[in-house]
Design goal:
4-stranded mixed sheet; 4 helices; 2 domains; about 35% helix; alpha+beta
Length: about 140
């Protein structure tokens, strides 16, 4: 994991994200608020998960106070999508979600990884050439 100070972090963001016009999500994890010390293990697991159906960890950075995860940008969770669509979800949409979810779980199982908090709010949707791509972490 890259160890940076705040100034280097700002340079990284400017050079790797803003100048390259990348749309990403940056998740900050405050080291002082971490109860579960398995965060480094979880980051290592995310690095192994490279698939169209799984959330992509692009990079990870560590400062004195925080961990920063640079992630694929997703626009909403499955939970939000279902609430937004209410009763207008077609059988085909439901089938597509379930098939991709099944594929994702299979890929994780093949790597001996178990998702311990699988729920609609942890299944993320991203845009991919105007097609919804279901991702989960």
């Amino acid at each position: 994991m890259k160890q940076l100070d705040q100034e280097d972090l700002q340079k990284y963001i400017e050079q790797k994200i803003i100048k390259q016009k990348k749309c990403v999500a940056v998740k900050e994890i405050d080291k002082t608020r971490i109860k579960d010390k398995n965060i480094l293990n979880e980051i290592e697991i995310m690095k192994k998960l490279k698939s169209d159906n799984l959330l992509l960890l692009i990079d990870q950075i560590e400062t004195n106070d925080s961990y920063y995860l640079i992630l694929e940008l997703c626009y909403m969770s499955l939970e939000e999508y279902i609430k937004e669509r209410k009763d207008n979800l077609s059988i085909e949409e439901i089938k597509e979600v379930l098939l991709k979810l099944n594929k994702s779980l299979k890929e994780m199982k093949e790597k001996n990884i178990l998702h311990r908090d699988l729920k609609p709010s942890n299944i993320l949707l991203s845009l991919n050439k105007s097609k919804i791509n279901k991702n989960m972490f």
